[in-house]
Write the structure tokens for this entry.
Amino acid sequence: MEKVIRRALVSVYHKEGLAEILKLLHEQGVEFVSTGGTSTFIEGLGYPCVAVEDLTKYPSMLGGRVKTLHPAIQGGILARRGHETDQKEVLEYGLSLIDLVIVDLYPFEATVASGASEEDIIEKIDIGGISLIRGAAKNFEDVVIIPSQADYATLLEILRERGARTTLEERRHFARRAFAVSSHYDSAIFRYFDAEDHSALRLTADETKPLRYGENPHQKGVFYGDLDRYFEQLHGKELSYNNLQDVEAAVSLIQDFSEPTFAILKHNNACGCASRPTLLEAWQDALAGDPVSAFGGVLIANRPIDPETAREIDKLFVEVLIAPDFAPEALEILQSKKNRILLRQSAPVTADWSYRTMLGGVLAQQTDHATETTADLRCVTKATPTESEQADLVFATKLVKHSKSNAIVLAKGGQLIASGVGQTSRVDALRQAIEKARHFGFDLKGAVLSSDAFFPFDDCVTLAAEAGITALAQPGGSVRDADSIAAADKYGVAMVMTGIRHFKH
């Protein structure tokens, strides 16, 4: 059912984009009701405006905290047009019916992010605006609610097409948006007060991206979040559910490397990675780690893609390529495959907490930001790692942190030469890694090993030493650490303990 807009209450913080809406409403004969700065803005455009105070017979009070919280305003919004008793009371109390409410709330989140004082933050908790939004949304059958600046454009389109008239479907759409805005706003306020107490979980995401399907074609999939915050998609098909999981794993991994590095991921695990003086060398050696698994993988670099590197990448089928930038010629080369997804990463992913649904609830934990350096490597054996072995141990430990447990990573000369991931036995993970390294022609003599957790027995140390591995890194902390240390000393292998476990399930 269409409803005509005859009176609009406008009370906004952000006024950009509002002028054209007001112009069209004025041309349709709509009366404006407003407060404070918004009223001044409307009158400055040359349109008459009724002050809220003229309807309430009360001035703005308590430093502006109380303006629209009055039956004359709320009643004009909430009155049901087809309800006999409501309409009798409208006449009895002389209420002015309001058909359109345009609100833009105080910028609470922006104020918190600015580092403002608590006093300033508290004053940015909007009370009247939230009440206007909820009241108008509740009465969506009769009232249009525009709950934020983000919705101005939709209203403008309606006004241009049909004038000051809305359908029930449109009003219901805006009501849904209104409750999305109010719930997000309240959640942000709660998180501020809750701080590090974690007494309850309130997460919101305004951006929604329907996916082709979930992990499998018979499963629906949706992404809630703002990808544009981190990436600009330059080319290719839409990102899938599985693509997004690999993208997150890739960007989390690459953030631990400062030197020119290229990584290749498959099913959230690195199957190739190398740090080199040039990006081309890094790509070539990352690919050499496992050229079979690299097919259809997700690639990421921490340096702009140059044309020479692009030409080499173009020889391989890849799903996604992520980089901080692409040279124009490189982009032209890589766009030759129409479905290849090219993402320019514009900002690091800095979430402090990660979440996972579990048993009808949610598991939450702090993001693993721990990244070992040579200073964290405590040697516990008679043999000490050489300078190059220390560098490789740090390299391998960065990778094992991002590999599914149980995980073993083998590295040599700043190159991932093999890993064993997701095994129920750490021994199996090591055997898998050794076999894979040999399959692709790597000499394990002088290689290093990193484990995501301690060695409860000496079996992994023995296997590693027999394969030619000369240095090992593990967190330590097993009641049988002495057995592993003794085995390392027996074989003349250097072992360091980091004190940090990196389980990733």
User: Anything to note?
Assistant: The CA atoms of residues 102 and 180 lie 15 Å apart. The longest strand covers residues 269-275. The domain at 374-497 is CATH 3.40.140.20 (Cytidine Deaminase; domain 2).
